[in-house]
Specification:
Blueprint lengths: L10 E17 L5 E18 L5 H11 L15 E4 L11 E4 L2 H14 L4 E6 H4 L5 H22 L3 H6 L1
Parallel strand pairs: 1-5
Antiparallel strand pairs: 1-2, 3-4, 3-5
């Protein structure tokens, strides 16, 4: 059972932009369907999250959940990279952009955000990286396929599982 966050813990406002790709289908004169090009669209959501050095994986999962992509599972071995940008400071013409691909980078990002305490931090995620993660749908398909393989072996040899073990 998780405990509520301490009252001294501040929530950081994060604007998450997810880049999603879809194939645009186009009909030719002969009625055939061909894929013309890949269309890129941006989806933006805002999230309040308690930033700490030790909540990297829950941060990644909450970003996906906010965009309705929580079927993808984040683990210590399987994470996705993202970019983050602090708001512009008067002395800069462009905000600093930082790649975050591991926990060390995340901890550096947290330190920067907490030292500046910006009103909003921008996060950019590319869906192509997220789609490489294991998902609930792929594990369901894998288990269905493994069940089909057993049936295929039995039908190809003409023996049931019990007969195969007896031989």
């Amino acid at each position: 059972m998780s405990s509520p966050p301490p009252e001294s813990e501040t929530l950081c406002s994060v604007t998450v932009t997810l880049t999603v790709y879809s194939n645009l289908k186009k009909k030719t004169q002969k009625g055939k369907v061909s894929t013309a090009k890949e269309v890129k669209s941006m989806k933006m959501k805002e999230l309040l999250f308690p930033l700490r050095d030790d909540n990297y994986l829950s941060f990644l999962q909450s970003l996906l959940k906010k965009h309705g992509q929580d079927q993808f599972k984040v683990s210590e071995r399987k994470c996705y990279p993202f970019k983050f940008m602090l708001p512009k400071v008067k002395s800069q013409c462009i905000g600093d952009m930082m790649d975050v691909d591991n926990e060390v980078n995340y901890q550096e990002m947290v330190r920067k955000i907490l030292s500046i305490n910006p009103s909003v931090t921008k996060i950019f995620i590319n869906m192509k990286h997220v789609e490489k993660l294991p998902s609930d749908e792929s594990s369901n398909k894998a288990s269905e396929n493994s069940g089909d393989d057993d049936n295929a072996k039995a039908s190809s040899t003409g023996a049931t599982g019990l007969n195969a073990h007896l031989d």
